[in-house]
Amino acid sequence: MSTVATYPKDSFLSGGWDLKSWLLTKDHKRIGILYLLSISAMFVLGGLYAGLIRWNLLVPDGSHMSADTYNKAFTAHGVIMVFFFLIPSIPAVLGNFLIPLMIGAKDLAFPKLNLLSWYLYVLGAAITLYALLAGGLDTGWTFYTPYSTVFAQSNVEIAAIGIFVAGFSSILTGLNFIVTIHKMRAPGMTWFRMPLFVWAHYATAIIQVLGTPVIAITILLVALERIFHFGFFDPNRGGDPILFQHLFWFYSHPAVYIMILPSMGVISELITCFSRKRIFGYSFIAMSSLAIAAIGFLVWAHHMFVSGMAVYSAMVFSALTYLVAIPSAIKTFNWAATLYKGSISWATPMIYVFCFLGLFLIGGLTGLFLGNLGTDVHLTDTYFVVAHFHYIMVGGAIMGYLGGIHFWWPKITGRRYSEAWSRLSAVLIFVGFNLTFFPQFMLGYLGMPRRYHVYPEEFQVLNVLSTAGATVLGFGYLFPSFYLVYSLFKGEPAGDNPWGAKGLEWTTTSPPPTENFHQIPVVTEEPYDYAKAPKEKDAV
Amino acid sequence: MSPSFPVLPERASSVAGEVDALFFFIVAVTILFTVGISIAIVFFAIKYRRRSDADRPADIHGSLLLELTWTLIPLGIVVVMFVWGAKVYFHMNRPPDDAMTVSVVGKRWMWKLQHPTGQREINELHVPVGRAVRLVITSEDAIHSFFVPAFRIKKDAVPGRYNVAWFRATKVGTYHLFCAEYCGTEHSRMTGRVVVMEPDAYQTWLAGGPPPESPVVAGEKLFTDLNCITCHRPDNAGRGPVLVGIFGRSVKLASGDTVVADEAYVRESIVSPASKVVAGYQPVMPTFQGQVTEEQLLALVAYIQSLQIPTEGAPAPAGAPQR
Amino acid sequence: MTAHAPGGPAHPAPAGGHPGSARASEALQHQFTDLQQQKEATTLGMWVFIAQEVLFFGGLFAAYAVYRNMYPAAFSAGSHHLSWKIGFANTLVLIGSSFTMAMAVHSAAIGKKKRIVAFLLATVLLGSVFLGVKYFEYGEKIRPCSGDGPYAGCLVPGERFDASAVHLEGDEGRHAQIYFSLYFGMTGLHALHMIIGMPIILGIAFMAWRGRYSPEYHSPVELVGLYWHFVDIIWIFLFPLLYLIGAH
Questions:
Q1: What is residue C181's three-state secondary structure?
Q2: Could you give the C-alpha distances from C216 to A109, B87, C38, in angstroms and in order?
Q3: Which backbone phi and psi does C198 adopt, to 5 degrees?
Q4: What is the ipTM of this complex?
Q5: Which residues of B touch A79 (CB under 8 A)?
Q6: Beta pairing, strands B163-168 & B132-139
Q7: Of A322, A265, A329, A326, which Cα lies nearest the Cα of A298?
Q8: Which strands form B192-197's sheet, in the order they lie side by side?
Q9: Nearest CB to A110: which of C1, C16, C45?
Q10: Which residue numbers in chain A have pLDDT < 70?
Q11: Where does B95-247 have alpha helices with state H?
Q12: What's the pTM value of the predicted model, to 2 decimals?
């Protein structure tokens, strides 16, 4: 309020714009931006495939494209969105950029490894894209055997190698985060003074390090089976196709938490800042992240309740699945309680928080139907599952991601974006999202199986609704790319702390200098101590 | 565009009602929490809206009591849900004893079904209303999943395994049959219908068409053609164990374990005989992997199942060897 | 909420603290405040990497457990076609290489430059012996079916797998194929880890020869040592699971 913010002369961005200064950078902030650009490209591509899927499903008879094209489209959508957008999204962009800033470090523990992670991501993406575009892949992103190993005629091996390589990008990022959080904290930054965003990434990193290698070896076995006919998953050679599902879901269920936990971390940061209030139940939120990471490893077989597994094993997995619902519930209640008696601003990031809460509630609660043995039999492999995981991954993870991008955009770029446009886009995304995916819950309950190129006529009304919603959603996602890019050139300088937020990242300049802090900070306060907060003195 | 626009699926089996009751219980819980928390959030967001930059919010750290409340209450609710769901699942996985067995073989991209009396159907299943039907489900190639939404049942067809599902249709009509596990190009055309008929109409339907060969008879013929009979003699003089009366019993294995001789064990013993050898016998049987189709396997299993020890006074079962 | 922390501050160095000696500042990377922090971070990093490796191999060990439980006879029969003597000799070679590696780390800690180089080279040499023996073992199985050595047969899984050459008929032969798939998969992955490790050891030996390490700073030697011991331990599990289950 008092002074007009100015753009700092010296920042990590002023170090040069030539290609070499970016492609050989070891600065976690620049690497974060490299990730931002690459995953955005993948998001657009994955979105185009989603468009193809919705276009096909406008009509029940599949007359818009061939079955083969449709199968390749939903496989490409799944592979791109899961492995190349959602898993890296928040950790690789925001986590990379912010973790060192938040704990008062000069960089991640292993900057070269960080750059290597990005190159592995790009290499993995390039290999996978080659497989997807030159001939295509039609196994679904789940690669179920023996279809993928014996019957599929598409580029399974190449795609498997691409995903294998990208997996190591994720592992190395997780490793870097774990070591950084353990060993690089500034003086006075104790574990329980860490922002919840960092806690969430710590839990995520554990999953990345312990889960990803299992999918890596599994997907490698699929490739080996196709190339050398190893027969691990081929019943005609004595193999067991169900073993693949166990190995696959041992990773791929925790992978859901790789996507959602960082988003929960973002929400915790945003909700305190825009309530200008300490978070309610700090340690409960922090520990619930670890609980989710731990229990999340023990629930994988709830994807297989109809595969013929023993009734008693199914019961164990169902019980554990219900157990993992509790920490998520704890987080949600604590967030709601944080609002109580706060000073709540309705700035764009907070609008995203509200959207997140609404969608995550529905997404999380519909998980109760799928963890339930009685109802899962009917609902599994139907559109109910599709709707459920989109509410979590798109409604939860992407809302958190966008909320985080809008919150830290001024810190990353040093510029402010248009509030009016950004709020409009948040609302559009929320409406479009619900219109797209809510009808899919109904379709699933009615019995429409997923991955169907043609479907019975009575499902058409709901499918048309869903496609209409997807159109709105698509526009909602387009908006930010315009006003955010516009802000780079015409946006007002943001100042160090435009939101009046706590946290070390707001004590340095926006954008931060290459070394993050001109002097390593010494932490003396508890986190989110908004009672002593500065007001929005730099805000305009 | 179709004029009809259903909101609820048809309910045409005895478990459908149980599943729906549970489903709507969870729906109620979901709505309660969604609406409750949403109202709280909207209320707080408006009531405590930032009016001036000088607002002084309360400095609240947390509350152990509240944390315990919202940990324990949801925990109690999910325990109820879990127990209820487990009960329904148990019911779904325990076919009644009087059920008639229909064999189901998934093949890209069709369903092949066979009635106990021998009638074969493709992508269509005729069943009598009110009668329990037990499905023995397998696949010839990729994994498929047998899904009848109106019955609320679904079971994967896994190559090399026999999975069992069952239903008791409660309403005459025609219902969708879907493949629910992605199995390749024409996955979405691997569909069909289940026709539930009055018992009389079902009998008439069975009587129509050429007289079929029952799986037991077909299995007996195979048993002879494949020379199984040379070793598996009924008089305990062969190189292999006697099969009469073995089905459904516990069998002691050479490894010291015991297994129940169910469909899965019989199948395994035919395609990979060395895996679980009966105690007292040598692993001399060759594998029949690749020599018999899934349907022939099912016929052999049906035949061995029919080989019961004749009880006193009762006539020997039709398929039992007469020598 | 109290600000109590179990770990306390990670590196309670004074803000803006500067590293001491010139040699240390050469080794110290810019993101760390002092060598101690750098050493702790890199060591933890290697342990996390090893945890990742355990899970990576874990997928294969899980598959092994499942299939051995399903086909114990075929696994035992398959195991008969590996020579436990060769496997045992190789185990000794690998344990020897672990010993030389441990000696290299010890030499680094006491600052004996020449001995570091010598022990690292010995480690690579023993690793090469191991791989050479492995090459010979693989070759025997890959040799065409018509060969007449004691183990000659098409024991490479795939279309031409033919266990009948080694008297594994029908069913057992088919399941023995899974055994050999696991054999090649697990030992292959293990060998790959050695092949990746050896050039790295050579690189570190070169740096040691250039005098880059001191008793204060020799983390790379320690880290590659950790990695090498891990690779050895994997073999300690593989040897009995693959070679000794047939009770010869």
A1: helix
A2: 20, 65, 12
A3: -65, -45
A4: 0.90
A5: none
A6: antiparallel
A7: A322
A8: B124-128, B192-197, B173-179, B144-148, B153-157
A9: C45
A10: 1-4, 532-540
A11: 199-207, 215-225, 228-231
A12: 0.89
